[in-house]
Every structure is written in structure tokens, then in C-alpha cells.
Design goal:
alpha/beta, Rossmann fold, 5 helices, disordered N terminus
Length: about 170
Amino acid sequence: MLIHSDSDRRKGGVDREAPHPRGMDQPLRIVVAKPGLDGHDRGAKVVARVLRDAGHEVIYTGLRRTSQQIVDTVRDEDARFLGLSSLSGAHAHLFPQVCEKLREAGLDDVIVFGGGIIPQEDRPALHEVGIRAVFGPGTPTAEILEFITEAADRDDAGVGQANDWHWDSSA
């Protein structure tokens, strides 16, 4: 896992129009974040490690981040993906808030996925706000990697892109 301090961040602007790496050919930059006051991060760390072991650059934000802090990290790190984790039940409020702030920041191309204790009946509303996958407890890590590969190959999977495509998770 890469954990960057402010002094490690790249200088200068990010060219959001430049083509992103595709699929598994090149490492993708993926931020994994824990919004809100949820203090349980084991699942987020497992996902971050799996993504790192698959060759991606992973930035784990740590616990208790605000929506704005998460969006700032995604922008500063020029991330292609954002994984959000919630075990506290606040996903219905926090995940859409992060998606809205990403769009407000012009980060429409960032692909957002979520995980944690998220009931099946809550998932359609999350898909409607631009979350492309929701993974529950027991999701095989290989499935998360399959999602990353498929989503990275799409031109229309970003949080601000008009598309109803989403991944149907097995858990």
C-alpha cells in the first residue's frame, strides 16, 4: 500500500483529458477510503492489499475521512478508481455525497466502487448515483479484480458519465 504525505504529492496540475491506462496492462491508481466515523478498516485493508498484489498503485486514506478529503486525495493522486468502505450504515448518505463532490470537482471519469455491510435493498440507489459496484462480506477477491479489469476497459464507467452499467456482485 502506498500512503502518501502531503510532501510526497506530485507537483503541478493533472491532465484529466489524458488517456488512462487500460485493464491490467499498466498499474492503475486506486484510492481506498473510509468515509465518516466508521472505525473498522480490516476489509478495506484486505481489498487494498489484493489490489496492490495485483500490481496496482493503491493509496489508502486511513480512517475517518470527510467526503472532501477523499475527493482531494483522488484529485491529488490522479486516481482512476475510488473504493469506499462502510460498516457503520452511513453508506446511504456518505457514498452519494462523495460521488456528488467528485462530479463537482470535474472528476467525472473516476470509477467508484463500494463495499461493506450494505443491504441488497440499498444497492440500486447507490448504483443510481454512480457507484459501479458494491461488494459485500464474502466477496471473492478475484471478483473485485475482475470488476477492476472490466471497468477499466470501459470509456463510460466514471461517476459522472451517463450510463447505468454496474457490476452485479455475488455477495
